[in-house]
Design brief:
Elements: H1 11-29, H2 33-38, H3 49-57, H4 65-86, H5 88-109, H6 119-129, H7 141-160, H8 167-185
Helix pairs in contact: 1-4, 3-5, 4-5, 4-6, 5-6, 5-8, 6-8, 7-8
Length: 187
């Protein structure tokens, strides 16, 4: 019988999840001060370098265990498959572009709303995953269904529910994932 060994199979995905966990724990230790300083984007001075750093780092922050577990479940489920198919550098680009787009749009459109969490990245991963069997000249039914179900739900919730969830970040993340999926599989 072969000896079983544990492997670090998806470095980007596991590092992202590990960093998010460390940030969550730090947030509990600092009673949220670390999230406010580093891992949450909100309308702050454009003269502050931290404003630009938070455009990227807000995806590592989470408001609590439920928020973290919800996002990391999807990240850990979809990330390894995406990392294997597209490679680590593409996954890093998807995460960074999603973070930047959601951070900047939140900054511009929602002056009084702070944003933290990897939900936009989750939606980018979901839509990117739906392109895994894409072929030139075809539009996968799975992509259409995922787009209608997930993005449609976010539009409906954004219009009719008043909660602390940034539905626009989910939609923007989905758009980033779909754009990457289309571009990467067009060849």
């Amino acid at each position: 019988m072969k000896k079983l060994k544990v492997t670090f199979n998806s470095p980007v995905t596991l590092t992202f999840a590990g960093l998010s966990l460390a940030v969550l724990i730090l947030g509990y230790i600092t009673l949220g001060a670390s999230n406010q300083l580093l891992f949450m984007t909100y309308h702050s001075s454009l003269l502050s370098p931290m404003t630009y750093i938070r455009f990227f780092t807000h995806v590592l922050g989470h408001s609590g265990w439920e928020h973290f577990i919800g996002n990391m479940s999807y990240i850990l489920l979809l990330g390894p498959m995406l990392e294997e198919k597209y490679g680590a550098s593409v996954l890093i680009k998807v995460i960074c572009i999603t973070a930047f787009v959601t951070g900047v749009v939140n900054y511009i459109l929602f002056w009084n709303v702070s944003l933290c969490g990897a939900s936009g990245v989750v939606f980018a991963f979901i839509l990117l995953t739906s392109f895994t069997n894409f072929k030139e000249g075809e539009l996968p039914v799975t992509f259409i269904l995922v787009a209608v179900i997930f993005i449609g739900q976010q539009v409906m919730e954004g219009l009719f529910l008043k909660d602390n969830i940034s539905n626009l970040s989910h939609i923007l993340g989905g758009i980033v994932g779909a754009a990457f999926g289309y571009k990467l599989n067009k060849k």
